[in-house]
Automatic annotation (TrEMBL), chain A:
One of its GO terms (cellular component) is outer membrane-bounded periplasmic space. The lineage of its organism: Bacteria, Pseudomonadati, Pseudomonadota, Alphaproteobacteria, Rhodobacterales. Belongs to the bacterial solute-binding protein 5 family. This is Oligopeptide/dipeptide ABC transporter, periplasmic substrate-binding protein. It holds the Pfam family SBP_bac_5. PROSITE patterns: TAT. Residues 110-455 form the Solute-binding protein family domain. One of its GO terms (molecular function) is peptide transmembrane transporter activity. It comes from the Bacteria. It is found in: Periplasm. SUPFAM superfamilies: Periplasmic binding protein-like II. PANTHER family: OLIGOPEPTIDE-BINDING PROTEIN APPA, PERIPLASMIC BINDING COMPONENT OF ABC TRANSPORTER. Its main location: periplasm.
UniProtKB/TrEMBL annotation, chain B:
Belongs to the binding-protein-dependent transport system permease family. This is Oligopeptide/dipeptide ABC transporter, permease protein. It comes from Rubellimicrobium mesophilum DSM 19309. The chain crosses the membrane at residues 135-156, 177-199, 211-231, 270-295, 315-341. It is found in: Cell membrane. Residues 129-334 form the ABC transmembrane type-1 domain. It holds the Pfam family BPD_transp_1. The keyword Cell membrane applies. It is a multi-pass membrane protein. One of its GO terms (biological process) is transmembrane transport. One of its GO terms (cellular component) is plasma membrane.
Length: 555, 348
């Protein structure tokens, strides 16, 4: 599992990180994320901190079995251009035939996929990407450096409506001018090597390529329905693609998947995704009926029930969260005092307990998680319902009826109910509106006060870049604060954890001062599978790594 | 008779036009169109961009004109964008505009495109209606004999203990809506909590392969509700026939009771239930909406919910047309069948 040649020097920052781990300044997980992001292989990274590479538990105990059909519940959405994917489910179907440059592993490390290795210079402004050799597209073409550049160019195209990859590639783009990839930003050194010249230090550029909209497509792809002409490097092909009903992946018999030689797998012949809507009771009925072998995710109220069915549980601690955010473009949330007062009325610990059965960590309203490397502790104003009410009265909205909108998914709805109930206890008039998923997500950035699900990103700056940077595609709060912008740009360029933490403390303080959202808790993700399903443990960012999945035949 | 059928078909056409126009008007209200523009072109676009998107995609024209386009009596819209490419309602992507037909409405057999399912409306409705047809067929197979037997047994001897018991039972099941009985069935017969686990609480697998385990509960939920009602009607009709003079005469002549019921009473008693059963079919179609959503059986009712939830205009219109046809066709069959069953009406 070594992907960087042993005799090449390890990135100096990784050595520093290793020191920090040894002295207890950095957690092991954080170390793995950061050092593998700099191009150090997982094996070497574990070695630097004196640990062996952990074998997956099942590898030790059992040999994977070839074949079989795995059926999993999942909400099924129409296939569209990968860079505009705004929901993990799009990607999980697309992953059948589209691979990624790199893959984020549940332990926090980055696994080289279509890139064989990568290396950053000292200040993370120049990156050398090595393209994996011997990879074939399923139409017979070779995967080359041209393909890497083609995909980076696609990601950089900010003129495409809803292309969230553009925000992740800012240091490669001409942001002010053409809104496209900068001339000279990407250089093909030889057919196996690509060099990135960044406009500013960016520690997350390769990590960003693991995010789910970064599926790697063929040069002939026409930006339409990717399942219509499924050219990819992946091991499966889409067989059935019925939105809201069923999506099926079948093993491509005429294609040798590059990963078999490198990582083993794939094992399954068929993967069937079946849509049961947003009601977890419907999924439970399906599980009890034997219609599915695994569920997408277990909602907290159902954990004990699935345990009772004898299904196997996997759990991942994550920085996945809900942001009950205020749209600052809307009345009365354009008033900072109103936002802060509403935050002040809510005890996040209560929301975690009532909304998510205490399966997670209490969060602090600034959307940076303790598992992020640069997390800094900042002082949070105490919960004070009386003061909250007084502040609202002072702002002239004492009698205003606040409307809190959520989707009908269970815990999001329950969390909002817990928030609304606490506000009402404080004497604040709050109305709850619950919308079905099909309606809610059409307008999720528009609602004045609503609840949004945010998946985790490996680094704390990543989600801030996506959700709170002015003009970002997913900025749902209309947050536009010059101090924040300047500090975030600064944080994005600091590779060192401790140095960045100092800036992060200021960023967190700005977010708290501005009252961007009630962000009550960090979720643990849970998935239950039938006992004969292996390798399909829940992933912290909901990724489905199909090639790891296998099933014991049932007698 | 032919005149009668022709008149009925004309009524059907008129109703379909009125209803679809109503649906068209409601789904094309300004906020609904704005929602469509935002789903299609991104949720963050400005009001001006919404306007321009709507104009570019044919939504800018007057309501009646667009309705005419959908019907196929007016030519479909076309626009020429900045790059000079011509797009239009009737021009498929990649098709040469010169070759595209001018008209493309339901008169030309083009039902439009479903935005939710990313498929032609005709094929969505075809697939989903077939699935609901399967459900309805089994519902009728269970309901019709069940209801008739219950009604006849109860109506044979009015006021007897059998009558009281069966009447109470049929009133009880009719008074229980599908969303109650369905949930009770799932709780009792499928969950590990009660432990019976005789059936599946989800009918998704029944779409491909229906069997006793996965299809019983949805069928039963719809059937029971209608069964009670039809049984009550059959009973009423049966008791009326049983008090008729020719029945008394037959009894006095010494014909045995079973003979009286089967030979003399039954045919006359079945006229009323026949009409009720036919009228029950459109009613069942609404029950199907609930049951299909409850059991995740992706048929016509489920499609209606999805289409309505997402303001999928052309799919909703297609569904309306199909609904009108189903309702009026079953009424037509019921009227014609009534005439056939009752010779007195045939003569008049």
């Amino acid at each position: 599992m070594t992907h960087t040649t042993k005799d090449r020097a390890v990135h100096p920052a990784a050595l520093l990180y290793a020191e920090e781990v040894k002295t207890g300044h950095m957690s092991r997980r954080e170390f793995l994320t950061r050092s593998t992001a700099l191009g150090v292989s997982a094996g070497v990274a574990y070695g630097l901190i004196g640990l062996p590479v952990p074998a997956r538990a099942q590898d030790a105990a059992m040999t994977p079995v070839e074949g079989g059909t795995l059926r999993m519940s999942m909400e099924l959405r129409p296939t569209k251009d990968p860079r505009t994917w705004d929901w993990s489910e799009y990607a999980n179907f697309g992953r059948g035939w589209l691979d990624y440059m790199v893959e984020y592993e549940p332990d926090g490390s980055l696994r080289p996929m279509l890139l064989e290795s990568w290396e950053a210079n000292e200040d993370a402004t120049e990156w050398t990407l090595k393209v994996r050799q011997g990879v074939k597209w399923n139409n017979g073409d070779d995967f080359t450096a041209e393909d890497v550049v083609n995909n980076i160019k696609r990601w950089c195209d900010g003129t495409v409506e809803g292309n969230s990859m553009a925000g992740r590639m800012d240091t490669l783009r001409d942001v002010e001018g053409t809104n496209q990839m900068r001339d000279g930003a990407v250089e093909i050194v030889d057919p196996a090597t690509v060099k990135l010249h960044l406009s500013a230090p960016d520690i997350a550029i390769v990590t960003n390529m693991a995010d789910y909209p970064a599926a790697v497509v063929h040069q002939s792809y026409d930006n339409g329905d990717p399942a219509a002409n499924p050219i990819g490097t992946g091991a499966w092909l889409p067989e059935q693609n019925e939105v809201g009903v069923k999506q099926v992946l079948v093993r491509n018999p005429d294609h040798t998947w590059w990963g078999t030689a490198v990582y083993g797998g794939p094992y399954l012949d068929r993967i069937e995704y079946i849509d049961y809507g947003t009601d977890p009771a419907a999924v439970l009925a399906a599980a009890e009926s034997g219609e599915i072998d695994a569920i997408y995710g277990t909602t907290p109220d159902f954990v004990e029930i699935y345990d009772g069915l004898g299904w196997a549980k996997s759990e991942a601690v994550t920085a996945t969260t809900v942001a009950i955010r205020f749209q600052q473009a809307a009345e009365p949330y354009n008033n900072r005092d109103v936002r802060r007062a509403l935050q002040q009325a809510v005890d996040n610990a209560v929301v975690l307990e009532l909304g998510y059965n205490n399966l997670g960590l209490v969060a602090e309203n600034h959307h940076v998680c303790p598992i992020h490397p640069e997390y800094a502790e900042v002082h949070r104003p105490p919960v004070d319902p009386a003061a909250a009410k007084a502040a609202l009265d002072a702002a002239g909205v004492g009698d205003f009826e606040f409307e809190l909108i959520s989707v009908d998914d269970q815990y999001e709805s329950a969390s909002c109910d817990a928030v609304a109930a606490q506000c009402r206890d404080a004497g604040i008039n709050v109305k709850r509106t619950v919308l079905p998923g099909s309606t809610f997500w059409n307008d999720w950035t528009k609602y004045p006060w609503s609840c949004t699900l945010w998946n985790m990103r490996p680094l704390g700056v990543q989600v801030l870049n996506l959700a709170y940077k002015a003009g970002a595609a997913w900025n749902e709060t209309s947050f536009n604060n010059p101090d924040f912008e300047a500090l975030l740009a600064q944080a994005n360029s600091i590779a060192d954890a401790d140095a960045r933490r100092e800036v992060m403390a200021k960023i967190e303080q700005v977010l708290l001062d501005e009252g961007v959202a009630i962000q009550p808790y960090w979720r643990s993700l849970i998935r239950h599978t039938a006992t004969n399903v292996h390798g399909a443990d829940v992933h912290p960012t909901f990724e489905h790594h199909h090639y790891k999945w296998w099933m014991e035949p049932v007698n | 008779m032919l005149m009668f059928i022709a008149r009925r078909l004309l009524t059907m056409l008129g109703t379909a036009i009125c209803l679809t126009f109503l649906v068209f008007w409601l789904t094309n209200l300004a906020p609904n169109l704005e929602k469509i523009a935002k789903t299609e072109a991104g949720s963050r676009i400005t009001d001006a961009e919404v306007e321009s998107w709507l104009d570019k995609n044919g939504f800018g024209q007057p309501l009646l004109v667009r309705y005419g386009e959908w019907l196929g009596v007016l030519p479909g819209w076309t626009t020429t964008d900045e790059s000079g490419a011509v797009r239009g309602r009737c021009i498929a992507s990649g098709q040469d505009p010169a070759e595209a037909p001018r008209f493309c409405g339901i008169l030309q057999g083009d039902w439009g495109y479903s935005r939710v399912f990313r498929e032609d409306v005709a094929s969505v409705i075809g697939t989903r209606l077939a699935l609901t047809g399967k459900l309805m067929a089994w519902v009728l197979v269970v309901m019709v004999p069940g209801a008739l037997i219950l009604g006849i047994l109860a109506g044979m001897r009015e006021g007897s203990r059998t009558d009281r018991v069966l009447s109470t039972a049929s009133i009880a099941i009719t008074a229980t809506p599908e969303y109650v009985s369905g949930v009770v069935f799932i709780a009792v017969f499928t969950s590990s909590a009660v432990g019976l686990k005789w059936f599946n609480g989800s009918a998704t697998s029944a779409m491909d392969d229906a069997n006793l385990v996965n299809f019983t509960l949805p069928v039963l939920t719809v059937a029971l509700y209608a069964m009670g009602y039809v049984a009550r009607m059959t009973r009423a009709s049966m008791t009326e026939v049983m008090t008729a003079q020719y029945i008394r005469t037959a009894r006095l002549k010494g014909v045995s009771f079973p003979q009286v019921v089967l030979r003399h009473a039954l045919r006359n008693a079945l006229i009323a239930p026949f009409t009720v059963i036919m009228l029950q079919i459109p009613w069942l179609l609404t029950g199907v909406v609930i049951v299909e959503s409850l059991f995740n059986y992706k048929g016509f009712g489920w499609t209606l919910v999805e289409a309505a939830g997402n303001n999928d205009i052309e799919l909703l219109l297609g569904i309306s047309v199909v609904s009108v046809v189903v309702v009026l066709l079953t009424q037509l069959i019921s009227d014609v069948g009534y005439v056939y069953l009752n010779p007195r009406l045939r003569l008049s």
